[in-house]
Amino acid sequence: MQSSISTVSPLRQRMVEDMRMRTLAPKTQAAYIRAVRKFAKFLGHSPDTATDEDLRRFQLDMVDKGTSPITLNATVVALNFLFTVTLGRPEAMAKMQSVRVPRKLPVVLSKEEVTRLLGCVSHIKHQTALSVAYGTGLRVSEVVGLKTSDIDSQRMTLRVQQGKGRKDRYAMLSPVLLERLRVWWRVARAQGKMLDGGWLFPGMDPLDALTTRQLNRAIHDAAIMADIDKRVSMHTLRHYSVSRNIPSNGGGALAAGGVDDFRSA
Q1: From edge to edge, which strands make up the β-sheet containing 169-172?
Q2: Are 40 and 80 in contact (CB under 8 A)?
Q3: Which label site among 103, 209, 213, 264 has the fewest CB atoms less than 10 Å from its CB?
């Protein structure tokens, strides 16, 4: 039985090494590779011999196909890395330009809508995670990356490790949010779902964290059940109109009393 072995071109290998040297995030590396692969497909050959006119034609082709400004700019950044860093040919990017991204007003939920939204989340784990996202302004990737040891109930803070830009920072906890976290801690520990020093929001296997996809699905389903006529996502919870205080009456069972403290805090 013969096994097919996918070969990696020397150019791609060199680019991967350059990205590793600069410790780019895995998602960033994957995005850069996708952009270069797309450019190579457009050319019909390896991009290492491409000219500035080839890059110009590629951008025009993306514009004509209706590529979004965000994708266009991301592609420009990826190709700039390839030609400037890996190939040492920054002059090739002379005719490729980033484009202006139209600014749109963010979707903002009222406190009443947040109360309805959280009240329609059936699972206590998802409900608590959404409360954390709304109450602290954390990104969905930061929420699922939290561990029990990140809670400091004495200082009323939540430690975010390696957030955006690979920076550590602290978020403030309100008394209501801390109480909800305590209740979730008690329920999860009773069910054997939360390990000492483990994930604050574990997946089906306590050794794995809850995924961003699961949280996005939870908030989408809750928005439908709450009859909220807005495009609601996890990012929506980062925007607020007047206050980011957690509604004290919108969490059902989560509003009950909790334990004295986090055992691992």
Answers
A1: 151-152, 157-160, 169-172
A2: no
A3: 103
Q: For the domain that residue 27 is a member of, what is the CATH number?
A: 1.10.150.130
Q: The whole model's pTM is what?
A: 0.65
Which phi-psi region, left, alpha or beta, contains residue 33 (left: φ > 0; alpha: ψ -120 to 50)?
alpha
- The token duo for 264 is 């691992």
With the CA atoms of 146, 178, 138 and 104 taken in that order, what torsion angle do they form, in degrees rounded to the nearest 10? 160
**Cα–Cα distance, 12 to 34 (Å, whole number):** 11
Tell me the residue range of the domain where 166 lies: 111-255
- Are 46 and 40 in contact, with CB atoms under 8 Å apart? yes
What 8-state DSSP symbol labels residue 231? Answer: -
| Cα gap 70→59, rounded to integer Å | 13
CA dist., res. 252 & res. 127, Å (int)? 10
3-state secondary structure of 51: coil
With beta carbons less than 8 A apart as the criterion, state whether 183 and 254 touch: yes
Determine which helix (DSSP H) or strand (DSSP E) holds 104, and give its type and residue range: none
Length of the chain: 265
Distance between CA 38 and CA 222 in Å, rounded?
Answer: 37
Contacts (Cβ under 8 Å, ≥6 apart) of 83:
55, 89, 90, 92, 93
In this structure, is residue 4 part of a structural domain? no
Mean pLDDT of 32-58: 95
**pLDDT bucket at 164, cuts 50 / 70 / 90:** low
Enclosing H/E stretch for 160: strand 157-160
